[in-house]
């Protein structure tokens, strides 16, 4: 199964959907393999292959996550926690290294939005998340791209 996931990821331009617990499940499988066959050479080879394929898969996915961050696009859901953390770090680095030529202060950038529908937990293009939010609630969004995303996807309207 791991090989098939790796092959799909390798030959696709888009980030493939994998379960949130994907890396935890791989870790449990390796631990189970080690506990059943601690001195078995074949089990050791299988374990090494699992680790190698998992590392290659993660590196391939990181390359795609970098592209998502570069274009300020939200990641598909569900996403494993290590990948989500990596994406958020990238977004934060790009925010910190932005040139501000607008002349506005950062405090004046909040945009008030009203939720049109009940919103579950949602990852925004900036990497931050909102939700759950009740219908009719007013939100203050700092990032203009996040506000645009919420409005264009008919989740919110200007308050």
């Amino acid at each position: 199964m791991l090989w098939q996931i790796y092959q799909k990821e390798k030959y696709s331009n888009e980030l493939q959907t994998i379960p949130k617990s994907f890396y935890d499940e791989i870790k449990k499988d390796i631990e189970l393999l080690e506990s059943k066959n601690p001195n078995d050479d074949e089990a050791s080879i299988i374990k090494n292959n699992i680790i190698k394929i998992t590392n290659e898969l993660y590196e391939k996915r990181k390359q795609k996550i970098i592209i998502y961050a570069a274009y300020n696009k939200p990641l598909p859901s569900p996403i494993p926690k290590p990948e989500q953390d990596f994406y958020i770090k990238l977004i934060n680095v790009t925010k910190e290294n932005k040139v501000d030529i607008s002349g506005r202060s950062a405090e004046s950038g909040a945009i008030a939005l009203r939720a049109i529908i009940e919103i579950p937990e949602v990852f925004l293009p900036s990497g931050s998340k909102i939700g759950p939010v009740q219908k009719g609630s007013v939100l203050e969004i700092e990032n203009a791209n996040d506000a645009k995303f919420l409005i264009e996807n008919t989740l919110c309207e200007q308050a």
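The longest strand covers residues 111-115. The mean pLDDT is 85.
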